[in-house]
Every structure is written in C-alpha cells, then in structure tokens.
Write a structure and sequence with these properties.
The structure is a homodimer. Chain A has helices at 4-11, 17-23, 27-30, 49-61, 64-72, 96-111, 127-135, 154-161, 181-198, 202-208, 216-222, 245-255, 257-276, 283-297, 315-327, 359-364, 393-410, 437-458, 469-487, 496-503, and strands spanning 32-34, 39-41, 116-120, 145-149, 169-174, 209-212, 229-230, 302-307, 345-347, 371-378, 427-434. Chain A is an alpha/beta fold. In chain A, helix 15 (315-327) links the parallel strand 8 (302-307) and strand 9.
Chain lengths: 508, 508
C-alpha cells in the first residue's frame, strides 16, 4: 500500500525546466550541493523544492538514517544471508582487523620485485579494481604492468598473458570462496602456464602466486604460501569489495601502497559525508532520491552515466554491477513481491565518445534517459596549449560537459521537424577538482551508497544476489552433458543447438 | 492511426514459455532459422506462430521488401539529407568505384613498413573498426600494433601514444569532412608529437600520416600526400562505414588485406541473405520484427547483447551506436511526431563477465530485458584440455551460453521468495561456427540491417542524426566563453559551475 507521502509524490508534476530557470534565477544555486571535494548540480532534474521536500520525507518515513546508521554499525542488515554490510569499515582507519591486513599488504608490496601483475577474478573481484586501476593509471609505478583476466573464454587468458615473461609475473587469484568456476579455471591454467615455463617445483607457485580469499584450506591446497594469502571478511560483499584486499593487493602493487591509501581516504571522506550530513545536503542521499523520483514517479527506468574523462572509462561497467546486482530485485525484505519498480538499467561511455554514438537517442528518442555528467577542473594529462584563440584538449572536452546538459534541458525549436529538440530531459552534473586516487575512491563510495539509499527506501535487500544462482545450477547440467559426450561421442542431448555444438557443426 | 494489423498485434498475448515448450515438442525447431553460417533460435521469444505471421504481415503492409530493395538499388532513402544509404555496395565485388579504392588500399598495405598504426577517429570512424579489430585480433599480422584514439580528452592521446617510437608510427586521420572537432584536435596534437621528434619537414607528415576522408582540400592543407588519402562517398553513413576505407585502411594494415577481404565477404554474404531470403527465414528481418514485438507490443524498451566471446567485447558498444543513433527518433519521414516508441536502449558485456554483474536484474528485476546470446562452436584460442572429467575453457564458457536462456525462460519456484525466478523472460540465441574475419563481417551486417528493418517499419529515417547537432552548437558558445576568459581572466560567465571551472577551484 502506498503511503500518503508516496501518493503525494505521485501527484507531483515534473517541472518544465525552461520555465523553472526563467522564473527562478537562483535555481542553479538552490538545487546544488557544494562540498570541499564535490560540486553536485541537480537543478536540471524535473523537481521543485516541494518534490525534494517530499522525497526527504519519504526517506524519513522509511527510516533511511536509521538504516544508514545500522550499516555503519556493522549490524546484520543483509538478512537473507545473515551478514553485516560493512565495507565502510574497510576505509575506517580505526578498525584493527583491517589495519592488520593492510600492514601485511604494505609489507608485501614493498618486498615485491615482480613487475607483471595479473589479477584473476570476476564480477566483484574484477570490476571495482579495474575501474580504480584505469582511473589512476597516470599514478602507476614506473615499469609496473597490471592486467586483469576475468572471462573463462580462453581468449582472455591467451591475450592477457601474451608477451609476458613468467619469471617477472605474479598472479593474484581473487575469489572469496576459492571456488568461483571461471576464476579457478583461469587459475589452474595460469599454474600450468607458469609450470611449463619455470618447472614443477612448489617454490614456483609460492613465488609467483598469491591469493585474496577467505578460504584458507583451498588456497593452501592450490599450493599458495599461506603467508601470501590476504583475507577479507564475510561482511564484505563482492561488488563492495574494491577497498578490501581484493583491490588493495593489485592496486598497491600497481600504484604503490601510498596511492592505495589515498583511495581509502577518498572513500572514507565520502563515507563520513554520507553518515553525518543532513539529507538535504547529502550527495549520495539526494542522488539516490532523484533516481527514485525518475524511476518510480516519472517512469524513467534507464540511466546513463557519462564521465567526461577517458580515465573513468570503466566506471560505467562497475556502476552497472553495483546498481543492477544490488537493486534488480523482485521481493522486499519480508519476502513479499514488490509492487513498484526497483533497480534501473545503467549504461554509459566516456564523453565525448558517447556523443558520437548513443546521444542521438538521448536527445531525440521517444524514451527519456536521465543522465549523470561527471567532469573535472584539471586534467590528468595537460595536452595542448591555451591561447587567446585556442583551447586545450581538456577545455575542448569540458565545453561538451557544459553544453550537453543545457541541450538536454532546454531543447530547441526549428521549422524543420527533424531538427527539433523537445528538451526537458533531466540530468545532474558533478564537478570535481581532479581525478586522483583520492577522488577515484570518493566516486567509488558515492556509487556504493547511492545504490544502498535506493534499496533502503524500497525496502529490498540490496546486498544479496540470488538471481545469479539458477544459471549456475543449469550450467552444471550442461557441463554434465558435455562430459557425457566426451565419454560417448554418440551421446545426443535433448537440445538442438547443444547437439550442433557437440557435433561441431551447424545443422543442415 | 494504428492499422488493423497493428491492432491485431496489440491484442496478441505473450506466450507462457514453459507451457509453450511443453505443448509443442517441435518449438525449438519451428522458431529457428538455420543457414550455412548462422543458426538463429528465437523459440524463447514470447511469440506464437500467429505473432510471427502478423509481424510479417506488418512488414508487408509497411513495404519492407520494397524499402530493402530501394536501399540496395542506391536510391536516396535518407530523405532529410537527400542521400543514398548504400553501404551494401561497399561489399559488392562488382562495384567499380569501390574496387578502385580497395586496390589502392591493398597497394598501400603491401608497401607499408610502419608497425605502429594509430587510427584517430570518433563515433562511426571508430566503433565499427575497433569492434572488427578486437574480433579479429588473433588474425593480426605478427608485430603489428593497432591503437585507436577517439576521445578529445588528452588522456586518450597520452596513453595510446605512450611508448611508441615515432619513426615506426603511422597515424590514420579518419573524418568524412575533416572538420570533426575531436578528431582534428587529436590530429593536430599528433602532428606536433611527430614533428617534435622527427622535425618539421613536410616529408615527415607525408610519410607518417594518411587520411580517410571525402574532403580533399582540407586533407592537403593538413599536409597529407593526396596519394595517401583514401576516399569514401556521401552514400556511406558514419555508423555504416566500417566496411569502407574507414575500416579498410587500419584493418588491412593490422590484419593483412586478405583478412579484410574476408570481412567484406562475410558482410556480403549476409547482405545477400537479407536481400533474397523470404521474410520468414530472413534473420535480420525476423530479429528486427522481434525487437518491434518486444518494444511496441510488450513494452520492453531495453535490450541486452550478450556475446559469449571475449573477442566480441566491442560489439555491444558498436551495436549501441548503430541502434541508438539510427532509431532514437521522434518524427517520421513526413516530419510528423511518431505516436509509438522507437529505438531501444542497447547495452551488454561479454559472457560470462556480465553474469557476475548485471544479470541479477535480468533474472530477478522488475523490468524485463530481452537478451541476445551469441556463441561459437569453436574457440579462437583452444585453452585447456577435454577429458572424461574435464571441460575446456571454451566448453565451460558455452555451458553458460546454453544455461542462461533456459534459466531466463523457465525460471524456478522455491519456498524462499528471494530464491524464486519468475521465468518467461525472452531471449534469442545465435550460434556460429567460429569467430573469423568472415563471421565478424557477417555480424556487422546483421547489426546494420536489423536496425534498418525497424526504421523501415516505423517509418522513420534511420540514416540521419540531427540529434547530435544542438550539443555542438551550444559547445561553440561554451568555447567562446572559455576563450573570453583566456583573454580576460576576470571574465565571469553566467553559469555557476562554468565559473568554478574557469576559476580553477570549487566554490566554497
């Protein structure tokens, strides 16, 4: 049953942006949040002050603050798995368990002499660390090379190990349970690759493999030195694990431990902002509430994430995981089917690349896609010179960061119908000083908390992922059919396409 | 006004897949198309034979065949720009203009001694060639290195040129008009980069730069030898240009000319299938009609493209461009606003990576996302050994390709609500023999024609992109404000965030 506040929100009309900006010269100021590190402008969302007030009342009604505090207190809010959701503790310098693991990683990083780091992991053990590695590549230690192998497709292994010298290579096997099918398959292949070249001695594995896992026995059985296993805890969910050893080990090796600490500081800064700032000035809260406004009240169920920053090229894929795995849920915490829409589809590419691709639909399609623009005052690489007549590469990039939200919001009339832009298409803009390990960590935490806000308000569990299980179960059956065919080539499965695959030829 | 057929389709009910498969043992066979190179199974779409019949009637009513023939005949079907849409001619071995350019490219490829190829282009001058390069990387000529610079963000230039020796490097500047802002900015920076290292002699530019363009004067003004300019024609749209010189020059250098020819053969094979096959057995037609069924009659406006193939990692981004730029349109060919939904949002990642990310929402979210699975009988890299007990990497990958569509279609009940899968979520599966230049070209043509089918039926112009113009116009204004600030640092723009950017600091 919708509450009174929900019903009031259903009656709220989206504003007309052209009119709203014309009537209120202060709109850009009123609908923005300015903090030391982030300038968040949501004045081009289709909201009035009343809408924001009602959204904050909705948050109060759903006890958002209480739920945030419970998360920070380490309460077991992941009820289906009876676990805490405590990734904020990973960034809390006062946590002794965390400090111990970080000290061990720091020591390992300082001792390491191997220069080719290959991280084998998938999903949560991959997308967050890869986002951070790309965001911070300009800060990498000279001569260090970091690659990620995620896909079980042999192409990923073959192409990522091409040209690597085994004697200079360190594999990091990242799997909470040390049973993830793709990761263990790649890990076994990595072991063979290493042994073929450096021999079968157990010392080879001890020297060239480390693990990030919670499964000590399995790591030891693989042959990895227990001293080279870095733990995390059951209160760290996969997609929230980038600031645990999952990210710490590869990123400390690649960027240096001090840079990894900066990532933690940035995430911790946003954690504290999230915990301590009143709703109306709280960036993850307001951005999450605006998503709810767009999804549940305006029916806009897809969101575009558009960083004007090539080094953020992997942020959309990581955000896609955090949002869609967390909030793609059909039942509430009590197990009842939800009667509203939950998680949105998130997609995106860095600007300006996306402008030459899918922006056509965003400007002139029949669907409305709310957009998030992210930009920086300073570039990581200063390329080109500023003069009275010329702009730098970064300035050229930023002309687009500033132009696109206005084009979406205000549109343009034209005598020719195909040149008309309807406008009133919502977006938010986030401006930061510079992309550094600190701000990369901050953006990571923003992504995490924004998704959590929505789950708290919808009353769903954003922290489990049972939706991935059925595919695994059915996969086991297919694997059995393939093995039956290995044993008996005349074996015929009850699936025409699988039959073609086993026969090795397309049907006539 | 909806036609009778449209109204009949509105009354059609989506099938229940569990029931439909139980009642009809032949369903997998009936709802599939088998050709020499492609096995397309759409039995898990929510259709009956009647639905398919009505969709084909709709296609007849909208004169789909006539429109396809007009496209192949080179008629000026891009009416807003008064141009033909004739990319199929690029693959037609009987076209003399095309053959001449290809001969010139072949000659250039054979003479080239430079091993670092850097293609500078954006949007249509980038995404198609990059998709093909990644798909065919295993076929690359030994020692050849191909990189793409698209983004105007200096990070893209700096990182892609890092470590390259200028004396071994060839820049290919790809821009139809030779005025694309990002491309020309990167081209100028490339020129400086080269001249700083090899000197200012015009010979340096002549040796290390070639162009793919239609603008002879501008190419010459840049300093490129007219002999090293490769043309295409106004009847080749950007997003349909991968099989023109736009793709031919970088890909022939990277893969060898013979492999590029294979790409053309594959695209041509699909072109002929598209032109000559009756609708009911025509894969681009049926896949386009199924998209219409999902978008317009079931309301599923987002589609996931899920290649179980790491080498197809760039196919989703290319498809996103082809679909969303072509069909994100608000007005029909006569300029009247459409009264139905047009182009869908397309996103995707290779399997199995996506399974550990956004598949949660696809299985258990409140939105239904139709999925396209693509798989191959043989891998590009055979990794791992098959035994009675073990599967190869490719077999492990393919267990997922076969398991996921069934998990989506049939779901699973469970006493625990969060472990329930509703099922009845539609997908199609496409199986091919192996990913080669031929099949990569074939998939490219499938992508192009599938989008065109939808546009033909909706009666929109899929071949213009006026939706990208307004952002460019507003960008010019922002650039002027930045230049004003260069000239007078006290200049204050009428935009708070832009003011912060120009001041170089976040507001207090």
């Amino acid at each position: 049953m919708p509450s009174d506040i929900w019903k009031k929100l259903q009656k709220e009309q989206p504003v007309n942006l052209k009119q709203a900006f014309a009537e209120d010269k202060e709109r850009a100021k009123t609908f923005s949040i300015r903090t030391e590190h982030l300038y968040y402008d949501f004045s081009r969302q289709l909201v009035t002050s009343e809408t924001i007030k009602l959204l904050c009342e909705l948050a109060k009604e759903r006890d958002l603050s209480g739920k945030i505090q419970a998360m920070f207190a380490g309460e077991k809010i992941n009820k289906t798995e009876n676990r805490a959701v405590w990734h904020v503790a990973l960034r809390d310098p006062s946590n002794p368990e965390v400090s111990d693991v970080l000290k061990k990683i720091e020591k390992f990083t300082r001792q390491n002499k191997l220069t080719n780091i290959v991280a084998i992991g998938i999903g949560g053990s991959y997308l967050g660390p890869e986002y951070l590695a790309e965001a911070c590549r300009v800060y990498a230690k000279p001569g260090m090379n970091l690659r990620f192998i995620a896909n079980v497709d042999g192409t990923d292994f073959a192409q990522k190990t091409a040209g690597l010298k085994p004697e200079e290579t360190l594999f990091i096997i990242i799997s909470k349970t040390f049973t993830t099918a793709e990761t263990m398959k790649n890990a076994e292949t990595a072991k063979k690759w290493m042994q073929e070249k450096l021999g079968n001695s157990p010392e080879v594995i001890k020297k060239h493999f480390v693990a990030v896992s919670t499964a000590k026995d399995k790591v030891a059985a693989f042959g990895i030195d227990p001293d080279n296993m870095f733990i995390f805890w059951d209160w760290v969910g996969g997609r929230f694990s980038a600031t645990s050893a999952v990210g710490a080990v590869p990123l400390s090796l690649f960027l240096g431990f001090e840079n990894f600490k900066e990532i933690l500081y940035g995430a911790h800064w946003l954690d504290q902002h999230f915990l301590n700032t009143p709703m109306e000035k709280n960036i993850p809260v307001i951005s999450g509430l605006l998503d709810i406004w767009n999804i549940n009240f305006l029916g806009y169920k897809t969101r575009a994430l558009l960083p004007y920053c090539q080094a953020l090229s992997k942020l959309p894929a990581h955000t896609q995981q955090v949002e869609m795995e967390s909030n793609g849920k059909l039942v509430d915490l009590s197990g009842k089917p939800v009667d509203i829409d939950t998680g949105e589809v998130v997609f995106g590419e860095p600007g300006t690349n996306g402008q030459h691709s899918f922006y056509q639909l965003i400007h002139q399609g029949t669907q409305i896609i709310p957009c998030d623009f992210i930009g920086f005052i300073e570039p990581q690489y200063p390329v080109g010179k500023a003069s009275n007549k010329e702009v730098t590469h970064h300035e050229e990039l930023m002309t687009n960061f500033f132009a696109q939200p206005d084009a979406l919001a205000f549109g343009k009339d034209d005598p020719l119908p195909h040149k008309r832009f309807p406008g009133n298409r919502p977006s938010s803009s986030l401006l930061l000083k510079k992309l550094t390990p600190f701000t990369a960590g901050l953006l990571l935490a923003w992504t995490e908390h924004r998704a959590a806000v929505k789950g708290f308000i919808w009353g769903i569990n954003s922290f489990d992922q049972f939706g991935v299980e059925l595919g695994k179960v059915l996969g086991i059956k297919v694997r059995e059919e393939i093995l039956k065919h290995h044993q008996d080539p005349s074996y015929k499965p009850n699936n025409l396409m699988l039959e073609a695959f086993l026969k090795g030829k397309l049907p006539d």
